[in-house]
Amino acid sequence: MFFKLFAKECGQMLKSLIYYLFLAAVVFFYVSQVGSFTPYSEPLKGQEESYGIKASSDKQQIMGATLALLAGEYEANSYTAYPVGFYKNVVLTKEKQEKIHQILMDCTGLEEGYTDAIRESSEEAPQTEDGSYIQIAGINPPLLPPAEDLSYDRFLRHMTKADKIIGGGSSYASDNVKNNAKTYATYEDAKKIYDASLYTDRISRGKARLFCDYMGIVLGLLPVFLAVTRTLRDKRSMAQEVIYARRASSVTIIAARYFSAMFLTIMPLFLLSLTPMLQCIYYGHQLGVSVDVLAFGKYILGWLLPETAFVLACGFFLSESVGGPAAILVQVVLWMVSISTGGTKLVGTVGWNLIPRFNNDQATDVWLSVFGQMVRNRLLYAGLALLFMAGTVFIYHMKRKGVLGGRGKNFIHRNRTL
């Protein structure tokens, strides 16, 4: 019974205009964002300051850059933060400003004159011919020298306190301070990244991560329209009585709808991934590198399938319980929050975000460091998808019995279970 209904649901969806609009949106996003295959460039020795930049590990530079940033925001009473993923300009009360001032005094030993101290330290930075200071993507940032007796641990405690005063999500959070100072990467750094992309990621894994990063953006929203459309189709055609009278259980009917929608959502991704996969195989053959030919399939199933499952399940549940427009509205809000949260850091942002970001086909060490978070994240959304679908089955069954406003009271086979 299930497979018969599954095939029928697939056939119905393949006749839907909404499904083809969904496909068009996915293909357009893939073509415009993923683009063509870009080979990895092996770094050459002797090209200093051309290997990119990295977060500085110099604690003095981190403290100096962070304190300069804090002093500048303090004097303007204008703090940048992302407390829930969205940009927020924070203006503090007089009392909270005094607390920030106390932190600056404890960290620098200065009661005032922060601008002059920053200017003096900046005079040592490289200058152009017109005397302006070179600032390249965080390289040579303005520095406010910390007090001589300030340890790095005490500095971090002060910055954590400042972050709480601002409201969280600022540049002073313990996970963010290390990004306030940058330095040039060395040849050894670049070579390590290149080798990891070829031999640890086996070329295709990094490309698969980039593919999933982009596809995850559209799959965090668009599948909800398929769920809502399927639920509304019965209402528009006034087919509830016929469906309610079927001998199939509620579990079978809802499962057939759900898995057919998931199947037709995921299958196009496998087809789209064929081109970059073949390009990876060709590129690996040219370099004599063994390519992971299953990489795209594994990442699609592990990364994108739980996300798609959650969005569809949420859509079906809300459509059955409160209506299609509410389902779309809720998913739009979730999508916006997820995108905004991930937008603050495009590489290695996982946490509990519905749309984790990893907009880099290299950075293997970063991926390995967040892999455990990614597994927990995807398991969470897979579990939530199961809960939503269980709720959908329950609501649908109650409608078939006529308990929740459904008109199946006179038609349902009462002796059948869920």
From TrEMBL:
The chain crosses the membrane at residues 12-31, 214-233, 254-279, 299-319, 326-347, 379-398. Keywords: Membrane, Transmembrane, Transmembrane helix. This is ABC transporter permease.
